[in-house]
Amino acid sequence: MAVQTTSTPAGFTFLRVAIASQTLALFFQAATAGLLLTSSFGATLHDVGSRVMYGASMLYVLAAILAWRPGGGSPRPVLYASVFLVLASVQVVLGIAHMPSLHVPLGVLMFGLSVLALGQALITVPDAERLRPTP
Predict the structure, then answer these.
(1) 21: CB partners within 8 A, 6+ apart
(2) At CA 48, angle to CA 47 and CA 51, rounded to 5?
(3) What is d(CA 102, CA 105) in angstroms, rounded to the nearest whole number?
(4) Is 101 exposed, middle or buried (0-12, 13-18, 19+ CB in 10 A)?
(5) How many CA atoms within 13 Å lie on the side-chain side of 101?
(6) pTM above 0.85, yes or no
(7) Rg of the chain over all Cα atoms, to the nearest angstrom
(8) Which of 15, 36, 69, 135 is deepest in the core (most CB within 10 A)?
(9) What do you get for the CA distance between the two ends of the chain, in Å?
(10) What is the pLDDT of residues 65-102, one digit of tens each?
(11) CA separation for the pair 132, 106 (Å, rounded)
């Protein structure tokens, strides 16, 4: 039996959706941070967005664990997701403490890392999807 390899990414997986939702939540946070300076409802949006972003980070950890354990894949996404959850926790603490000199740069770093993780997830094809037996 021959094995065919393909280099095209598969469809949406739970892990890809989780990373994408985290990235979108972080982008929303950046947009509402700007609204904090110009409108009265910016604080409310940023507060709600912080809860969504934290939930998206937890979802990313769950998705990484579910992608790793059953398939026996690399535990690296679990490490990345755990680091994001720790960074999100630090970000929440810095926001509550009103420390924008650390809160804003950490938010920018988190968004950049999330975009990189999303890009990696979109171009990486799991072995089970890449190696398909040909009839």
Answers:
(1) 56, 59
(2) 95
(3) 6
(4) exposed
(5) 0
(6) no
(7) 18
(8) 15
(9) 7
(10) 988 877 667 788 899 999 999 999 999 999 999 999 99
(11) 42
